[in-house]
Specification:
The complex is a heterodimer of chains A (72) and B (639). Chain A is mostly helical. Chain A is built from 3 helices and no strands. In chain A, 89% of the residues lie in helices and 0% in strands. By secondary structure, chain B is an alpha+beta fold. The chains are: A mainly alpha (72), B alpha+beta (639).
C-alpha cells in the first residue's frame, strides 16, 4: 500500500506539471504560430517561449525520481 | 569570430558614378551605409516602372506556383543581363506588355483547370444520384407523373411524408385515388436527397409544402450537366470518362507553361532587382556638384584588394580613404561572422536571432562544442548515432552545392551522430539493450536506466559549467563595452554560484580539502557585487541562474526516456518471439524513438543555448553585413 502511494505521488509529481505545461504550451504555441506568420524573424523567440514551460515537468521528474529512490 | 570592419569612403567624379557602382557591385564587398534617401527616390519614372515590373514578375511567379525559387538558371540570368537593356523605359514597357499577355493566358489556363476540377466533382455527385434514381425516374415519367428532387433534413422525413399525404389527399377528388411515390438517398450525415413523384395537378401544392418544411429544391449543377443526366446515368458516365482526360490535358499545358516561363521570370526578377538597386544608388548620388561620395563598410581582410582594384580601374579619378570604426559607431557597423570550417554550420543558430553587436563575442564556436555534446548525451546510443550519421551523409551528398542551409543541417546532424556514438559507448547502448543482448556490450561509464542519479549529477555539473562560462563571458562583455553594472551583476552571480558550489563540495566531503573559508569568501564577494550592481534585484538574478542550472537535468530526463523506449522496443521481441510481427513492432518503436530522439535532443539543446546560456551574455544588437553585389547563390528572392 505504501509503495503504491509512493508510486502515485511520483506519478502526480510528473503528471500535474505535465498537464500545466501542456496547457501553457498550447496557448503559447497558437499565439506563437500567429506571430511567426506575421513576423518570421521572431521564430527563435517563439521557440524559446514555447520551450519555457517545460522546466516544470523537468523539476517534477526530479521530484518523482527522488521520491522513488528515497522511499520505494 | 566577428570580422573586423573598416569604414571606406570613396570620392570620385559624378561622370564615373555608374561605372564605379557597377565595379563595386562586381567586387561584392562594400556594405553601403543605408540612409533614408536610399528609399526615397520615387519620382524617377524609370525607377517607378522597374519597381512596378519587379513586383509584377514576383506576382506572376507566385501565380505560376513555380517552386524552384532557390535554384534559378544562372546561365539564363547571364544571357538576359547581356541582351536586355533595362535602363530603357521603352524596353520595360515592351516587357510589361508581354507579361500582361502572359498573365491573361495564365489566368485562362488556371481558370480552365479550376472549372474542370469543379465539374469533375459535381459530375461524380450527379452520376451517383442518377444511378440511384434512374429506374424511379423512368417508371414515374412513363406513368405521366411529375418528379422532383429535394434536399431534406433526415430527421424531418417522417413528418414531411405524413404532411404530404394529408395535402395530396385533400387535393385529390373523392372519386380518384391520391398518388404519392418517393425514393431517398442519404447525402452526408444529416441530409438526404428525396425524389417525389405526384400527379401533375398536385405538383405546385407539394412544392409549396416542401418549401414550408425548409426543404431545398435539388438542382443539378450547371457545370456538370443538365437535368437529363439524372434520367440517363449513361450520359453522366460518358461525361466522366472524358472529363479527367481533359483535366489532365489542361494540367499538362499549365505545367509546360510553368516549366517554360518559371526560369525566365525568375531570371528577369534577378536582373530587375540588381538593376533597380544600382539605379537607386546612382540617383542618390546624382544631386549636388561634380563629385560624389560613397560611404560604406568593407571587411579588413578585403580592404587591400578592394582599394587596389578601384585604383587600377579608375586611377587618379577617385580618392579612397579608410579608417577603423570609432566605439560610438559600433552599433551601426555591419556584422560578418567568420568561423572555422568545423564551426561554420552552427552559424545557423544565430540566423534565428538578431546578430551580435560589433566587437562582442560570437558564440558560434561554443555552440559547435556544446550543442552536439548535449544532443549526443541525450541520444546516447551507438545504433541511433550510426543511423543519424548515415542520414547526415545522405543529406550532405544530396544537397552539396544546391542548398547551403541543408548542407549546414547535414553537418550538424553528423556532429550529433558522432557524439551520440561516443555517448553510446559510455552508456553501453546499441538500439537500447540490443547490444548487450547480442554482443554483451558493457557501458564504459554507467547504464542510464540503472544509474540515473550519476547521470543527473553530471548534467547539473555540466549546467553549472555552462552557466559559469556564460556569466564569465557576460562579465567580459561588460568590461569591453564599459558597462559596469553588467560586470558587477555577472561577477556577483558567478562568485555566489561558486561559493554555493564549494559549500556543497565541502558539505558532501567530495574532496579531501576544507573549502569552507573559500566558499564564504566567494559568497561575501558575490553578494557585495550583486548589491553594488542591482541592489536586491541582483539576488533574484542568482536564484534565476540556479533555476537555469537545474534546467540542464532535462538532458538526463530526455536521455532516460529515450533509453527506456528503446528497451521497450526490444521487449516486444521477447514477448512476441522472433516473428515477423514482433520484429515489425520493435522496428516501428525504434523508428518512433529515433524521431523523438532527434527532435527532442535538437530542440532542448537549442533551448539550453538560447535561454540559459545566451541569457548571460548575448545581446542581439548588430546589423547583418549585406554588401552590394550581383545576385548569386540561393538567397536571391527578397521577401
Amino acid at each position: 500500500m505504501e509503495k503504491a502511494l509512493i508510486g502515485l505521488g511520483a506519478a502526480l509529481a510528473v503528471g500535474i506539471p505535465a498537464l500545466a505545461t501542456a496547457y501553457a504550451q498550447a496557448k503559447i504555441g497558437s499565439a506563437g504560430a500567429a506571430t511567426i506568420a506575421e513576423k518570421p524573424e521572431t521564430a527563435a523567440m517563439m521557440i524559446i517561449l514555447e520551450a519555457l514551460p517545460e522546466t516544470m515537468v523537468i523539476l517534477g521528474f526530479v521530484v518523482a525520481i527522488m521520491l522513488i529512490l528515497q522511499f520505494a | 569570430m566577428i570580422t573586423d570592419m573598416v569604414n571606406l569612403k570613396i570620392i570620385g567624379l559624378k561622370s564615373d558614378g555608374k561605372d564605379l557602382l557597377e565595379h563595386i557591385r562586381d567586387l561584392g564587398v562594400l556594405h553601403i551605409e543605408e540612409e533614408k534617401e536610399y528609399y526615397q527616390v520615387t519620382e524617377e519614372p524609370l525607377i517607378e516602372k522597374m519597381r512596378f515590373l519587379r513586383a509584377g514578375v514576383l506576382g506572376l511567379l507566385e501565380d505560376l506556383g513555380w517552386k524552384d525559387l532557390d535554384n534559378p538558371d544562372w546561365g539564363l540570368v547571364e544571357s538576359l543581363r547581356e541582351i536586355v537593356p533595362l535602363n530603357d523605359i521603352a524596353v520595360l514597357e515592351e516587357i510589361e506588355k508581354s507579361l500582361m499577355e502572359f498573365k491573361e493566358r495564365l489566368s485562362e489556363m488556371t481558370d480552365e483547370v479550376r472549372a474542370l476540377e469543379e465539374s469533375t466533382v459535381a459530375l461524380k455527385q450527379v452520376h451517383y444520384i442518377a444511378t440511384h434514381f434512374h429506374s424511379f425516374f423512368s417508371e414515374e415519367k412513363k406513368n405521366e407523373k411529375v418528379v422532383s428532387l429535394w434536399l431534406v433534413d433526415s430527421s424531418k422525413l417522417d413528418n414531411l411524408l405524413k404532411g404530404l399525404e394529408r395535402t395530396i389527399r385533400s387535393l385529390t377528388p373523392v372519386v380518384e385515388r391520391p398518388y404519392l411515390n418517393h425514393k431517398a438517398i442519404s447525402q452526408g450525415e444529416n441530409f438526404l436527397v428525396l425524389a417525389l413523384s405526384v400527379n401533375p395537378e398536385s405538383s405546385s401544392a407539394v412544392s409549396k409544402l416542401m418549401e414550408e418544411f425548409g426543404c431545398i429544391s435539388y438542382l443539378v449543377p450547371k457545370t456538370a450537366m443538365d437535368e437529363l443526366a439524372l434520367e440517363s446515368p449513361n450520359a453522366s458516365q460518358m461525361e466522366l470518362k472524358w472529363l479527367p482526360k481533359k483535366l489532365a490535358q489542361a494540367k499538362t499545358t499549365l505545367d509546360a507553361a510553368k516549366r517554360e516561363w518559371g526560369p525566365r521570370l525568375a531570371a528577369l526578377y534577378v536582373i530587375l532587382d540588381e538593376e533597380l538597386e544600382l539605379l537607386v544608388l546612382e540617383k542618390k548620388f546624382s544631386g549636388g556638384g561634380e563629385l560624389f561620395t560613397l560611404n560604406g563598410w568593407v571587411p579588413l581582410s578585403a580592404l587591400e584588394d578592394t582599394v587596389s582594384s578601384l585604383k587600377h580601374r579608375f586611377g587618379e579619378r577617385i580618392l579612397a580613404t579608410w579608417r577603423a570604426p570609432e566605439p560610438q559607431e559600433w552599433p551601426k557597423v555591419p556584422i560578418l561572422l567568420k568561423n572555422s570550417k568545423w564551426a561554420k554550420p552552427f552559424e545557423l543558430f544565430l540566423k534565428l536571432l538578431p546578430m551580435p553587436g560589433y566587437k562582442s563575442i560570437d558564440p558560434t564556436a561554443l555552440i559547435a562544442i556544446f550543442f552536439p555534446f548535449f544532443a549526443g548525451c541525450m541520444i546516447g546510443d551507438i545504433g541511433y548515432g550510426i543511423v543519424f550519421g548515415l542520414i547526415g551523409l545522405w543529406m550532405f551528398k544530396k544537397y552539396r552545392n544546391r542548398s547551403a542551409m541543408m548542407m549546414n543541417v547535414s553537418q550538424i546532424l553528423m556532429n550529433i551522430a558522432i557524439l551520440s556514438i561516443l555517448w553510446g559507448f559510455l552508456y553501453g547502448e546499441f538500439f537500447g539493450d540490443l547490444g548487450h543482448r547480442l554482443i554483451h556490450l558493457k557501458p564504459l561509464w554507467v547504464e542510464r536506466t540503472e544509474g540515473i542519479i550519476p547521470v543527473m549529477a553530471f548534467t547539473i555539473a555540466l549546467g553549472m559549467a555552462h552557466i559559469l562560462l556564460g556569466l564569465a563571458l557576460g562579465a567580459y562583455e561588460g568590461v569591453r563595452h564599459n558597462k559596469k553594472r553588467h560586470v558587477y551583476e555577472r561577477l556577483g552571480t558567478l562568485f555566489t554560484l561558486l561559493g554555493i558550489l564549494l559549500f556543497i563540495v565541502n558539505h558532501m566531503d567530495l574532496v579531501n580539502l576544507n573549502f569552507m573559508w573559500a566558499a564564504l569568501v566567494f559568497l561575501v564577494f558575490g553578494l557585495a557585487f550583486l548589491i553594488k550592481g542591482r541592489n536586491l534585484a541582483g539576488l533574484i538574478e542568482t536564484i534565476g541562474s540556479i533555476g537555469n542550472i537545474l534546467s540542464y537535468i532535462r538532458i538526463a530526463a530526455i536521455g532516460l526516456s529515450s533509453a527506456i523506449l528503446a528497451m521497450v522496443a526490444t521487449k516486444f521481441v521477447d514477448v512476441l518471439g522472433v516473428s515477423f510481427f514482433g520484429i515489425l513492432l520493435a522496428f516501428s518503436i525504434h523508428l518512433l524513438n529515433l524521431i523523438i530522439a532527434i527532435a527532442g535532443s535538437v530542440l532542448h539543446s537549442a533551448r539550453l543555448h538560447y535561454v540559459e546560456f545566451f541569457g548571460k551574455f548575448y545581446e542581439g544588437v548588430g546589423n547583418k553585413y549585406k554588401p552590394l553585389k550581383r545576385r548569386r547563390g540561393t538567397a536571391w528572392k527578397k521577401p
